[in-house]
Structure formats: C-alpha cells, structure tokens
Amino acid sequence: SYTVGSGASVTYKRWTTQVANAMGATEINYGVAGVTLEDRVPVDYMASPNMVDDTVRIPYKTKYRKMLVIAFGLNDMGQTAAAYTTANYITDYTSVLNNAVAKGWAGNEILLIPPYWIGSAGYAAYAVITGNAAPTVSRHESFVAATQTVSQSFGTMYFDIFTDQKNNDTTLLDGDDIHPNDAGYAFIAGDIMQYL
C-alpha cells in the first residue's frame, strides 16, 4: 500500500512517483494495496493476492527498465498468525527473487526495501485488522533483518528505511497509524533519493 500511495492526498505525492520524477525516470508502478509477500495461512488475509501467487506482476528486464524496487514485509510482520514467520518470509522472498532473476534482473538492478516503521499505534491497528496479537518492535526488527538476509544472498541493493523512520517522529503517519501522510512520503522519497 506504500507503493500505491495509500494515505497520500494525491497519487503524485507517493514516494515512488516523487523518486521517479526527481530521477527523470518513467515510473511503472505495479504496487497493490493490502498484499503480503508470504503465501501462508491465513492466505491473502488482506484480500489481495500474495506476491508468491502473483509473480506475474514482476516485469521482464528490458533495456528501458533500469531498476526493480521491491518493498515488502509490513503486512507479513503485521500478521502474527503462527505461519507468518521470518523463516517462511525468507523462503517466499527467495522464491519471488528467483522469479525476478529468471526474468532477466541482476541482483545489482534490484532494490529491496524492508518493512517500513509504524510504531506502537500501528501495531495496535494490525491487531484490529488481523484479530491476532499485536506485533512487537522485536518482531518488526526480525522482518527487517530477514529482508537484509535475502538482499545479501542475491547481491541486491538494500535501503534500510525502517531505521531512518524509527529515528523520526511518527507524526509522519496518516490517521490510520500505518500509512504515511504527504510529509511521510516526502521523507521516504528524500531518503531513497539520497541513497540512490
């Protein structure tokens, strides 16, 4: 949903559009709100297909497509059902990246972004959404570390937006305590542009 721009007042304020515009690039946004990466029970609890079952969304590499950005894990972290573990997350992320590599993407052309920081109010919101126990900071950090593990195994670029967001005020979040507001998207875009 961050990739789609949920919480932004208008589409062009989502971070992906801001970064593409600043780089003079054409954005092709395949984001879908409410998606998990993991294909676990409960399956597709957010009502959108999980990424393992929807790898058709990963585009083939062409000379015009310079970078593939994959930002997953927040909805996986938020679902505290027994099957949503970091071990399963790594297994399923590996499957997704194997699909990207098979479509011609080299590791150094892929940027992985770990689960975004949301804070305790966001954890409470996930408990309401899932009907399960609220996630914790340590659970969140374990999914961030798992993303970095996958990145290292494929030699991808990796940008730890989580830590930068965690060190800043959570007023960068919209009223639902999960999605960024316009200032939050500008913060994410600025950080990613500095990284790139």
Write the layout of secondary structure elements.
Layout: H1 15-23, E1 68-71, H2 74-78, H3 86-102, E2 110-113, H4 119-130, H5 137-154, E3 157-158, H6 161-166, H7 182-195
Parallel strand pairs: 1-2, 2-3
Helix pairs in contact: 1-7, 3-5
Question: How would you describe this protein?
Answer:
This protein has 196 residues and is mostly helical. The chain has helices spanning 15-23, 74-78, 86-102, 119-130, 137-154, 161-166, 182-195, and strands spanning 68-71, 110-113, 157-158. Strands 1-2-3 form a three-stranded parallel sheet, covered by helices on one side. Helix 1 packs across helix 7 and helix 3 runs parallel beside helix 5. The chain is globular, with a radius of gyration of 16 Å.
Question: Can you describe this structure in just a few lines?
Answer:
The protein is mainly alpha-helical and 196 residues long. The chain has helices spanning 15-23, 74-78, 86-102, 119-130, 137-154, 161-166, 182-195, and strands spanning 68-71, 110-113, 157-158.
The proportion of strand residues reads 5-15%
Low-confidence stretches: none
Task: Specify the overall morphology.
Answer: globular
State the helical fraction: 40-55%
Q: Alpha-carbon distance between the termini?
A: 22 Å
- Order of strands, widest sheet: 1-2-3
Q: Secondary-structure element sequence?
A: HEHHEHHEHH
Average pLDDT value?
Answer: 92
Radius of gyration: 16 Å
Instruction: Please provide the count of β strands.
Output: 3
Q: Report on the biggest sheet.
A: 3 strands, parallel
Helix count, DSSP H or I runs of 4 or more residues: 7
Briefly note the structural class of the backbone: mainly alpha
